[in-house]
């Protein structure tokens, strides 16, 4: 059975390795996704992701 390819909403690249942003819900490729914090680079650049650490 074949793999399903998706199109990245940020760069437009077609890839079988796609992720869903935890903030905006966009489908993005591995180059436009930050796995450790589960957000896309667009949300990261806008500062929309929430850190797990407390302010000191």
Q: Overview of this structure, please?
A:
It contains 1 helix and 6 strands. It is α+β, with helices and mostly antiparallel strands and 56 residues long. The chain has one domain. The strands form 3 sheets. Strands 1-2 form a two-stranded antiparallel ribbon.
How are the secondary structure elements laid out?
Layout: E1 6-7, E2 14-15, E3 18-20, E4 27-29, E5 33-34, E6 39-40, H1 41-46
Quick summary:
By secondary structure, the chain is α+β, with helices and mostly antiparallel strands. 11% of the residues lie in helices and 25% in strands. It has one helix spanning 41-46, and strands at 6-7, 14-15, 18-20, 27-29, 33-34, 39-40.
Listing every helix as H and every strand as E from the N terminus to the C terminus, the arrangement reads EEEEEEH
The neighbouring-strand order within the major sheet is 1-2
| Beta-strand percent range | 25-35%
Mean pLDDT: 87
**Helical stretch tally:** 1
Number of strands: 6
**Which of globular, elongated, flat, extended, rod-shaped describes the shape?**
elongated
Q: Main sheet?
A: 2 strands, antiparallel
Question: Helix coverage percent of residues?
Answer: 10-25%
- Report low-confidence residues grouped into runs of 5 or more: none
Our count of domains comes out at 1
User: What structural class is derived from the secondary structure elements?
Assistant: alpha+beta
What is the first-to-last residue Cα distance? 51 Å
Q: Cα-atom Rg, whole angstroms?
A: 13 Å
């Amino acid at each position: 059975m074949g793999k399903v390819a998706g199109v990245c909403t940020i760069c437009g690249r077609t890839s079988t390795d796609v992720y869903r942003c935890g903030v905006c819900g966009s489908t993005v490729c591995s180059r436009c996704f930050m796995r450790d914090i589960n957000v896309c680079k667009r949300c990261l650049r806008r500062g929309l992701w929430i850190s797990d650490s407390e302010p000191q």
